[in-house]
Amino acid sequence: MRIFYVPLCALVLLSGCKKKENPKDSTFVVAFGSCNMSQEPNPFWDDILAENPDVWIWGGDIVYADTDDVERLRTIYAMQDTVAGYAALKAEVPIIGTWDDHDFGVNDGGSDFAIKAESQQVFLDFMNVPSDSPRRNQEGVYTSHNYETPAGKVKVLILDTRYFRSQLVKDDDPDRRYKPNTANDATVLGETQWKWLQTELKNSDADFHLIMSSIQFLSREHGFETWGNFPNEVEKLENMIVDSKAKAVIILSGDRHISEFSKKTLSGMAYPLIDFTSSGLTHSYFSFSGEPNRYRVGEVISCKSYGTITLDLRNREVDFRIMGDNGVVLQELKQTY
Q: What residues does the PhoD-like phosphatase metallophosphatase domain cover (predicted)?
């Protein structure tokens, strides 16, 4: 495993960037990102299209609506479709993904959001989910997508960390927003989604599994939103991944307006669990001055960025890249599975 990074978002072009020449070969390229405002300049859509990805995954906060007005929510989503660069990507590349709080409708929102059912339908409309899809009748936007190459299979598991999520517990510490909710019934995914995820992992014959969680999983110490606010759920997902024996499980996340790699060794698993956070596309945490993350690999990237994951199914190698404008590689992580 090697790590390459450019500190402080320096605009230095790293040579040797692998481009995908043939979508039928042994590689599968994923691009993803989060935290996007259609009214703000987005310098990345042309770069993302140039990567020739097999799929684009929204990691949440597709738009910033923060409203319980359904028609206003619909209008704000519609603005994103008018962005020329995004429209060009959408015309060439499959678009999948999940929501987070601001496109869900309320900052740090969860199961008690009054119009979550109506918001779900607007989200599915934006994602062009057919009117007769089972997703139209289920609670929550979670789903799975399966892809096959001549060299192997890729499964993308899209989680919904909003619809069912229990109450966050405010922290009295002025430097922290939330503290862990240790109640036995506190949940991130809800009972039905948990059962679905267990089945998807346990019964899968895919060679790689990408789990899209809008919020960070491994980075848990910063006091903002994270799976770490629900420690019982963290343990549950780690155990589920190990017990499922699913091959090459990787977590993708967003939300934080920073990008970073986190890695943890789980007992009973032959490879490390990596959580690749990519955020944000149009605005980022430029004033970031540091925060604890015992699982961090490399440095935090606090300028605008998006993520790419190149899966080499023949050699079981993955190239993770945090990308800046004009093909700049801000940080890179390689892992063999």
A: 43-260
Statement: residue 61 has pLDDT above 70: yes
- pLDDT, tens only, 164-193: 999 999 999 998 999 999 999 999 999 999
DSSP letter assigned to residue 15: S
Would you say residue 6 has pLDDT above 80? no
Residue keyed to tokens 């429209």:
87
Residue 172, Ramachandran bin (φ over 0: left; ψ between -120 and 50: alpha; else beta): alpha
- Beta strand spans in 116-229 (E): 143-149, 152-158, 169-170, 178-179, 208-212
Q: Which two tokens stand for residue 267?
A: 């007992």
Q: Which residues have C-beta within 8 Å of that of residue 132, sequence separation ≥ 6?
A: none
Exposure of 254 in the CB half-sphere (CA atoms within 13 A): 35
DSSP letter assigned to residue 19: P
Give the whole-angstrom CA distance, residue 36 versus residue 33: 8
User: Per-residue pLDDT tens for 92-139?
Assistant: 999 999 999 999 999 999 999 999 999 999 999 999 999 999 999 999
Is the bond leading into 280 cis (omega within 30 degrees of zero)?
yes
d(CA 296, CA 110): 27
pTM value > 0.90 = yes
CB burial class (10 A; 0-12, 13-18, 19+) of residue 15? exposed
d(CA 324, CA 189): 32
Q: For the segment 203-213, what is each residue's pLDDT rounded down to a tens digit?
A: 999 999 999 99
Look at residues 317, 319, 335, 305 and name the one whose alpha carbon lies nearest to residue 6: 305
Alpha carbon distance 267, 44 (integer Å): 38
